[in-house]
């Protein structure tokens, strides 16, 4: 199998039986240890039968424990290489870590989340979602908690390039908006767990109204998938100091950027003009660059800055939008 086995274990967790969940927890907590265990030894560690472990492996798409264990060995080797890039021997944050170690470990974990999300992303589904958004008269975005911030980020990106997009942080208003959806419109629900009541409800209402529905989630077999025509999957890990809300954010934002840039490519001419107009509309809200006096001894003032907006072009604004640099927006 080409799929990341550790990601597959995490994503399968909500659907596992209690015994299989114990196996999954042992694998996720210490995959390197599993590589050295026979099926009998793993069964003893997990307090499960060998049949349970065989069923667990087959449920993930492997022929048996031997193939599963080889995949785990390969995954742990790849992660070791990545840890070495950050000069780490251990990736989990410890209460006694120094500030340098905390920074390195978080950088490692977030890099891993982005790389895994990009590697495992179904790009064919991504482009189907892009096509639906480009053709849609209107796009609704739903999310709660930290996923609401991701929804707002995508909404402001799409709006900047002329796409009519709405995102309400009030769940009642989101439901009202979903109820007014029509065929041809797109509704995107963002939920790390796939179990967020408000998001699932809004997506179900939008689907019943005829909209094309999209889920962005870390668990593609979760409840939100049942309400979605398309599912885009992130690959984020939770840890003691990084809950799902924290670990999901960077992977979700990366996926949003993948989606937005593909949309922008399809609408390049329209995007450039829209960005020019929106850039000019907010340019009066920027402070003018400071003027600095040169140290040439003549007492003359040398302006090292440019007049606000003098050097800005639609191309520059397009670059800002694609890279997420919107200084007129509130950074969350």
Task: Provide a brief overview of the structure.
This protein has 332 residues and is of the alpha/beta class. It contains 14 helices and five strands.
* Percentage of residues in helical conformation: 55-70%
Mean pLDDT: 85
**What fraction strand?**
5-15%
Strand order of the largest sheet: 2-1-3-4-5
Order of helices and strands: HHHHHHHHEHEHEHEEHHH
What is the count of β-strands?
5
Name the poorly predicted regions: 299-314, 322-332
Any idea what the shape is?
globular
Number of helices: 14
Structure description:
The protein is α/β, with parallel strands linked by helices and 332 residues long. Helices cover 55% and strands 7% of the residues. Strands 2-1-3-4-5 form a five-stranded parallel β-sheet, with helices on both faces. Strand 3, helix 11 and strand 4 form a beta-alpha-beta unit. Helix 4 packs across helix 5, helix 8 crosses helix 12 and helix 13 crosses helix 14. The two termini are 38 Å apart.
